[in-house]
Amino acid sequence: MVMTMSMKRERAMAAATFKATCLAVLDEVAAGGPTVLVTKRGRPVARVVPVHATEAPLDGLIVASGDLVSPIDEAWESA
Q1: 9, 47, 61, 73: most buried by Cβ count inside 10 Å?
Q2: Are 38 and 47 in contact (CB under 8 A)?
Q3: How many domains in the chain?
Q4: What's the mean pLDDT in 41-63?
Q5: From CA 71, how far away is CA 60, in angstroms rounded?
Q6: CB 35 within 8 A of CB 9
Q7: In what side-by-side order are the strands of the sheet with 35-40?
Q8: How distant, in Å, are the alpha carbons of 11, 16, 59, 65 from that of 33?
Q9: Residues 16, 42: contact at Cβ < 8 Å?
């Protein structure tokens, strides 16, 4: 699997500004707006990027089969 990342527009924003406008910034990024680089005193500390639908769902990735908590009736050795 090869992952490529296209460089979309990105804008920098001071942490204080991000704090004051956080919900609006999240909505803007989710709607396809530019990613946001959050800075403190000019140094990058976080990046706000959209979550793609293919990354979020975990349904079906873990499957339970049989009884997972009862002791087994087989003898075994550990190394």
Answers
A1: 47
A2: yes
A3: 1
A4: 79
A5: 26
A6: yes
A7: 10-14, 35-40, 43-48
A8: 10, 20, 28, 43
A9: no
| CATH value at residue 42 | 3.40.1620
Amino acid at 72: I
Give the closest residue to 13 by CA, choosing from 2, 1, 24.
Answer: 24
- Name the burial class of residue 37, with classes exposed (0-12), middle (13-18) and buried (19+) by CB atoms within 10 angstroms of its CB: middle
The answer to whether position 31 is within a domain reads yes
CA gap 48, 50 in Å, rounded? 7
Q: pLDDT, tens digit, for every residue of 20-51?
A: 999 999 999 999 999 999 999 999 999 999 98
Q: Residue 34 sits in which domain range?
A: 10-48
Residue 35, in any domain of the structure = yes
**Which pTM does this prediction carry?**
0.57
